[in-house]
From TrEMBL:
The chain crosses the membrane at residues 7-27, 47-63. The lineage of its organism: Bacteria, Candidatus Kaiseribacteriota. This is DUF378 domain-containing protein. PANTHER family: MEMBRANE PROTEIN, MEMBRANE PROTEIN-RELATED. The keyword Membrane applies. Signal peptide: none annotated. Keywords: Membrane, Transmembrane, Transmembrane helix. InterPro entries: DUF378. It holds the Pfam family DUF378. It comes from the Bacteria. The keyword Transmembrane applies.
Length: 76
């Protein structure tokens, strides 16, 4: 399902971004990629964060029914 793949990519982007935020804080700099790319558009930046959060919630509750590894009869 295309929506499942899109949500998966958003969750990966969010996870990598949070990892970079932590590394950047330890190094004393801003490595928040979403903020660096979209900081001049705070509404769009917040929309990206909202989409990442919604994607994580949907995957958390619906992952097993869509994932072929978790459910052999799941969708491709």
């Amino acid at each position: 399902m295309k929506l499942h793949g899109t949500m998966f990519i958003l969750v990966i982007v969010g996870g990598l971004n949070w990892g970079l935020v932590a590394l950047g804080n330890w190094m004393g700099s801003n490595w928040n990629v979403v903020n660096l790319l979209l900081g001049s558009w705070p509404t769009v930046e917040n929309l990206v964060y909202l989409l990442v959060g919604v994607s994580a919630a949907v995957l958390m509750f619906g992952h097993k029914q869509d994932c072929r590894a978790c459910n052999p009869s799941g969708m491709a």
